[in-house]
Specification:
The complex is a heterodimer of chains A (406) and B (157). Chain A is mainly β. Chain A is built from six helices and 24 strands. Helix content of chain B is 48%, strand content 4%. Chain B has five helices and three strands, in the order αββααααβ. Chain B has a two-stranded antiparallel sheet with strand order 1-2. In chain B, a hairpin with a 2-residue loop joins strand 1 and strand 2. Classes of the chains: A mainly beta (406), B mainly alpha (157). Chains A and B meet through helix 1, strand 17 and strand 24 of A and strand 3 of B. Strand 17 of chain A pairs parallel with strand 3 of chain B, so a sheet runs across the interface.
Chain lengths: 406, 157
């Protein structure tokens, strides 16, 4: 009886933490009744997401996939993670939407309407891997504050747009240009119109790559609202926060962009490795650029039980930030021995690569299948957590699934 | 004959007396054995299954199985300081679902004092913080945890 009450109270308190406010008379909610704020808005319906996705936060919205939901070669919207820093813009006026190029290092300020962008510049389509810098944060010890992403804050959709480089050339850039920073239409959680929820960017080298797009299509259709409709930056292989959504401005800077979440400790890791739990001064934190090598087993779903059968097909994806994955292996004995997977080339640079293997499990019992990718510079995924950092970024420890033979 | 009759009667009375005595003694003995085995006479009570039993608790600081029943807090040194200072305004669940070290608990107490009308805890502050970090330590995840919350399913061909 006490246990039942306790469970009810505990469930109530987790609801309370979800909405960030006390539910007055919460103790009177009938069992099995979902409070209105949970019924409406239904994020799965609202964003057309599969209901097996995990909602980590609802203000701002942060939703992640699970490994087995990412089995598709090209990620569709229903399985694409959402990482928002502010409130999604409402009432987007397509006809009057424009993007303005400004900053210390433009020859002159210049704006383009969506129609002008689409008409004036050549369209390009690339499949690009976008992974949240904090993907895997939940594993760090001591714990890092923030959304507790597990493995599902990664996607690889097909993006269509114009090259940022082509537009920058048309605008005219001074030789002292160092960095670009984006500006967007989302609004700050506090409601303060002067505050940008996030305004990050990339150095000129990354900004002017072939694959860095101002995109207006995802998987051949208009970009879904939660993913940046009508226009977003896509800078594959870097923390996805560099790929700003709802873009209406680009600043070309003569220094490292200093917008919100570029400075302090956001999207930064210690320049030199530190012991777990260390306090790191802001000036000793360096901006994350390329994401590290990583992979996911997307089939089978963890927890598979094989009945009188000892072979198993596994498959998944591997990616390596700016680099390519050179080698893919799996282990069934906790890393004691490794076997090769067959690995496909990426469809284009910065797209994830698909791997598969036929695994033989020698006898009855519990197994973990571990997956390990190695990039073209010989760096592999660690089997334990990589270097601890205060904000819990860049966890690329090898993915593991549990399998039993009975 | 009369004497014989009288003697026989006396023997019968004594005999009956003995039976009554031993019967009584036997009953008392059984009772004593039962009390020794079930001193609360629980076998004669109905199981109390109402969910509201807690409200009826006369002793609101009752401890059961090492848990302070009213708040759910672990019984340990500093328990009552926590109960009296930390469960007046908010539920103890707010305390127990958080895991912090000494420094962060102290900062949280400062914040409650600055913004939430928490009083000066005096020498109890150290007792409370020690209780919290001892009984609700930050979980050690180590460098890699076991795979948990597995939902086993049969994999079809």
């Amino acid at each position: 009886m006490k246990r039942r009450n306790f469970i009810k109270k505990a469930a109530l308190s987790s609801l309370t933490s979800l909405i960030g406010a006390e539910i007055v008379f919460g103790n009177l909610i009938p069992e099995g009744y979902a409070p209105l704020f949970l019924q409406d808005p239904d994020p799965f319906q609202l964003f057309n997401k599969d209901t097996r996705m995990t909602v980590l936060n609802n203000k701002p919205w942060n939703i992640e996939a699970k490994a087995h939901l990412l089995d598709e070669k090209v990620t569709s919207n229903q399985f694409m993670f959402i990482r928002n820093n502010g409130i999604i813009p409402k009432a987007i006026d397509l006809d009057n939407w424009k993007i303005t190029f400004k900053g210390e290092s433009v020859q002159q300020e210049k704006s383009y309407s969506l129609a002008q962008l689409k008409e004036k510049f050549t369209h390009h389509t690339y499949q690009l891997t976008l992974e949240c810098g904090g993907n895997g944060r939940s594993e760090f010890d001591p714990p890092a504050m923030g959304n507790q992403w597990t493995v599902g804050a990664v996607s690889c959709a097909s993006w269509t747009g114009v090259r940022l480089r082509d537009v920058l050339e048309d605008v005219g850039i001074k030789s002292n240009a160092v960095y670009i920073g984006y500006h967007a239409a989302d609004t700050h959680l506090s409601g303060d119109p002067e505050k940008a929820p996030i305004s990050r960017g990339v150095p000129m080298d990354k900004a002017t790559m072939d694959e860095t797009l101002l995109a207006f299509k995802m998987n051949g259709k208009d970009i879904p609202l939660a993913h940046g409709y009508p226009l977003r930056l896509v800078a594959g292989g870097w923390p996805a926060s560099a790929s700003g959504k709802w873009i209406n401005g680009i600043s070309v800077r003569n220094k490292v962009h200093d917008g919100n979440k570029m400075t302090g400790t956001a999207y930064r890791v210690p320049c030199d490795p530190v012991e777990p739990g260390a306090k790191v001064k802001e000036e000793d934190m360096c901006i994350i650029e390329s994401m590290p090598v990583k992979s996911l087993i997307t089939f089978p779903r963890t927890g598979a039980v094989l009945n009188k059968k000892k072979t198993l097909e596994i498959r998944g994806h591997a990616w390596a930030g700016e680099l390519e994955v050179a080698n893919m292996e799996y282990s069934i004995d906790f890393g004691a021995t490794w076997n090769s997977c067959s690995l496909e080339k990426p469809v284009n640079r910065l797209a994830w690569q698909h791997f598969s293997a036929k695994v033989t499990l020698p006898k009855k019992g519990y197994y973990e299948i571990w997956a390990r990718a190695t990039d073209t510079q010989g760096k592999s995924q660690p089997m334990i957590l990589p270097g601890w950092n205060p904000k819990g970024y860049l966890n690329n420890a090898c993915h593991r699934i549990a399998v039993k033979v009975v | 004959m009369d004497r014989n009759e009288e003697f026989r009667k006396s023997v019968t009375i004594i005999y009956k007396g003995f039976i009554v005595f031993f019967a009584f003694f036997g009953i008392v003995l059984c009772l004593l054995i039962y009390i020794a085995l079930d001193h609360t006479f629980s076998a004669f009570k109905q199981e109390d299954d109402t969910p509201y039993a807690d409200v009826m608790d006369i002793d609101e600081d009752r401890i059961e199985n090492g848990i302070h029943v009213r708040t759910g807090l672990v019984e340990a040194e500093g328990l009552m300081e926590v109960v009296h200072n930390c469960t007046n305004c908010h539920s103890a669940l707010l305390v127990t679902q958080n895991r912090m070290d000494k420094e962060r608990w102290a900062a949280t107490i400062d914040w409650m004092q600055e913004t939430q009308n928490l009083w000066d805890l005096g020498k109890n502050e150290e007792i409370i913080i020690n209780y919290l970090v001892t009984n609700y330590p930050v979980p050690k995840k180590g460098r890699r945890q076991n795979l948990e919350n597995l939902e086993w399913y049969e994999l079809e061909e």
